[in-house]
Design goal:
Elements: H1 21-40, E1 44-45, E2 51-53, E3 73-75, E4 81-84, H2 89-98, E5 107-116, E6 128-137, H3 143-158, E7 166-172, H4 173-182, H5 188-198, H6 201-213, E8 216-218, E9 228-230, H7 236-246, H8 256-274, E10 282-284, E11 298-309, E12 315-326, H9 332-335, E13 341-347, H10 348-357, E14 370-372, H11 379-394, E15 399-401, H12 409-419, E16 423-426, H13 429-434, E17 436-441, H14 442-449, H15 455-461, E18 465-469, H16 473-485
Parallel strand pairs: 1-5, 7-10, 14-15, 14-16
Antiparallel strand pairs: 2-4, 3-4, 5-6, 6-13, 7-11, 8-9, 11-12, 12-13, 16-17, 17-18
Helix pairs in contact: 1-3, 1-10, 3-8, 4-8, 5-6, 6-7
């Protein structure tokens, strides 16, 4: 006997998700509101491809021979390495450098798209996720950084987040570099480890960060529990100096780097206050770091401070939903000349989840389509059903004609129930002869739909349905949908 062919097992790659209609519509609704704010500030859209030459990603390359740690990389037919973009900032830097002579500076642009991380997935940590960025390239003044902070505050409020439920927190890498200069940290790798340790303050608290500033930390909190993260190697005294600074307990330092950063923060604060953004909306906060090493000046984060229920109903603090800063060196890598730049990136999926749980998104859900049922399969009847369907669509009403096996009418009603269809359009031979059509309210008649198995039973039941002339179909459907949704049908 012939061996049955092996079936391919359907499986989703780890760290990736399938998105469904409600998720897609929720994100589109959110992005439309963000886009409106960006446009109001005078930013224009641009789009870059998801693949870049790997060397264009710059500091994301731990291994030049086979650069696939942290990023997903492949070789093309001429043996050049390509990588899926890690964020939207490095591709923008490449785009600006490549088109530098054709771009009007300052270049103010926004874009949304997926980015990819070749990292170990975990709860809430995915290998593919969406970001929505805005950037200004060619503006050396910290007025551009202040504008980013103000624009992010406006985005939060455009999304329905009340004042007091969010804050834009601001710091400066120069200030942090000044602190490290004061404690004698000059090695770039050690600096980055210190910065990444500080960036975990919200997650691990001061004691956990102190371990990461020193020898390192076990994930489980105790020796031998979980994985070990090697620390920055600071002694206890210097680790405490760093912690004092990020905790707002340190004195001003007199080194030039620290003072330059402090001066820029003062300018940002002055501009924001002059524009009407008080410290409850935009706040100078020494604990803000940002983990990416290409930042060169001001850095900022948008944080949700409200207590928000998660999917399990547990009250949580969502924390950061976006961040950014000044990255004056990225475009310069390609140009060999100074090109100042600053930008902000919103974590779309994370923010959408928070907004949905707050009841700020998905309230104007798109109605499922009206179902035009099929009572007869002859050419004349099918043409009529198709005509009804298209008439409803042309009137702006979502509609579909049943495409399955029409002979068992009960299956059509079960299909409509699974789809959540609000109404069913029905026309048998008698109605067709009279130029009439039946409209069934499926919300009201849902309880009996599964019990009806034949056309005869349906004609006898007439549950929650009305008869109208064909010419009254659109008007009647509109009224019935409005009654179901309180006038919010779309």
């Amino acid at each position: 006997m012939a061996k049955k062919a092996d079936k391919t097992r359907a499986r989703l790659p780890r760290g990736f998700v399938d998105r469904h209609a409600s998720d897609i519509r929720t994100v589109e609704e959110m992005c439309a509101k963000i886009r409106e704010v960006y446009e109001r500030y005078g930013f224009d859209p641009v789009e870059t491809p998801i693949f870049e030459y790997t060397d264009a990603l710059g500091k994301f390359l731990p291994d030049q021979d086979r650069p696939n740690e942290g990023v997903f990389s492949v070789q093309d037919d001429d043996e050049q390495w390509l990588s899926l973009r890690y964020d939207l900032t490095a591709p923008l830097a490449r785009h600006v450098a490549e088109n530098f002579n054709d771009i009007q500076l300052p270049y103010r642009t926004y874009r949304a798209g997926y980015v990819f991380r070749n990292e170990k997935p975990g709860p809430g940590r995915f290998r593919q996720f969406m970001q929505f960025d805005a950037d200004t390239v060619g503006a050396p003044s910290v007025a551009a950084d202040a504008e980013m902070c103000m624009m992010m505050a406006d985005v939060m409020e455009a999304l329905g987040i009340a004042r007091g439920d969010y804050v834009i927190r601001v710091n400066n890498r120069k200030v942090l570099d000044g602190v490290m200069e004061a404690i004698g940290v000059t090695d770039e790798a050690q600096k980055l480890t210190v910065l990444r340790a500080i960036d975990k303050l919200d997650k691990f608290g001061p004691e956990g960060v102190k371990l990461l500033l020193g020898e390192g930390r076990w994930d489980g909190g105790k020796e031998g529990e979980g994985d070990f993260t090697k620390g920055a190697g600071l002694d206890e005294e210097n680790a405490q100096i760093v912690l004092n600074y990020v905790g707002g307990k340190a004195d001003q330092l007199d080194n030039e780097t620290f003072q330059a950063g402090a001066s820029e923060l003062a300018q940002i604060e002055n501009l924001c206050r002059a524009a009407g953004y008080d410290e409850s909306r935009i706040n100078i906060d020494p604990s803000v770091v940002r983990g990416l090493e290409y930042y060169t000046g001001p850095v900022f984060e948008a944080e949700l401070t409200a207590e928000i229920p998660n999917e399990k109903g547990e009250i949580v603090r969502f924390g950061s939903v976006g961040g950014g800063g000044r990255y004056d060196g990225l475009v310069s890598r390609f140009r060999g000349q100074p090109v100042p730049a600053t930008g902000f990136s919103i974590g779309v999926s994370r923010l959408a989840t928070a907004l949905k749980n707050l009841g700020k998104l998905g309230q104007d859900a798109v109605l499922p389509p009206v179902l035009v049922t099929v009572m007869d399969g002859d050419t004349e009847a099918m043409a009529k059903y198709q005509q009804f369907t298209q008439t409803l669509r042309n009137a702006g009403i979502r509609a579909e004609m049943y495409q399955g096996n029409w002979k068992k009418f009960g299956n059509q009603l079960k299909y409509a129930d699974r789809r959540g269809s609000p109404l069913a359009i029905i026309q048998g031979a008698d109605e067709r002869a009279n130029g009439e059509v039946q409209i069934k309210d499926l919300i009201e008649g849902k309880k009996l739909s599964a019990e009806i198995e034949s056309n005869e039973e349906w004609r006898e039941a007439r549950v929650a349905q009305m008869t109208v002339k064909e010419g009254e179909l659109v008007e009647t459907v509109r009224k019935m949908l409005a009654a179901q949704t309180g006038g919010a049908a779309r």
